[in-house]
Amino acid sequence: MNEPIQPVKRPRGRPPLPRAGQRQRLVDAAIRAFDRTDGEKLTVSDIVAEAGMSSRTFYDHFESKDDLIAEIFLSQARRFVAALMSIAQRTRGPVERCDQALEAFFELFPAASAIDFERLGGDAGERVRTERRRCVNLITDGIVSELERMRQSGSLSHAPDRARIELILTGIEGLSMRYYSEGRHAEFDQLRPMIRELLLRATGF
Predict the structure, then answer these.
(1) What are the percentages of helix, strand and coil residues in the chain, rounded to 5?
(2) Hey, what CATH topology would domain 17-62 get?
């Protein structure tokens, strides 16, 4: 006699979140929590409560709160660089690209405006400093490459001044971090016309 066919048991609840998704969920939860509270007093317990996750899951991904703070900066930096690459592909002309790049910058980085990245120490602080330098160099290289292409095609009469461009970008990046960490996002936003003018002058437009 044939054995009765047993019904397949389906697992209850939601399927487990992939590891990368868990990490990003913690990052997003930390940004929300920082924006609502005093970042100095925010604890790992506050972050996992915001994420709806456990402390064990947190420490599966991050060594400490500072480690997660560094990841917040790296996450925003990666998004910004990806946005710049998209802008470069879909726009023509340095002025339009400058305007859209500034729009992306002012849209992305205020998400972490309550966090004082400059006060991070140890490995987390070094990771942020390294990524800040890498981003400035990467953006500088992209601008110089585009200007050089324009010069070779005859649409630009002079060679790009890399040092000048890097200096302006470093100043903008450093100033933005200071204003955001001090909670002066609105004041920094008012500097947008001046920043645009400096960038266009540095690139020769």
Answers:
(1) 75, 0, 25
(2) Arc Repressor Mutant, subunit A (1.10.10)
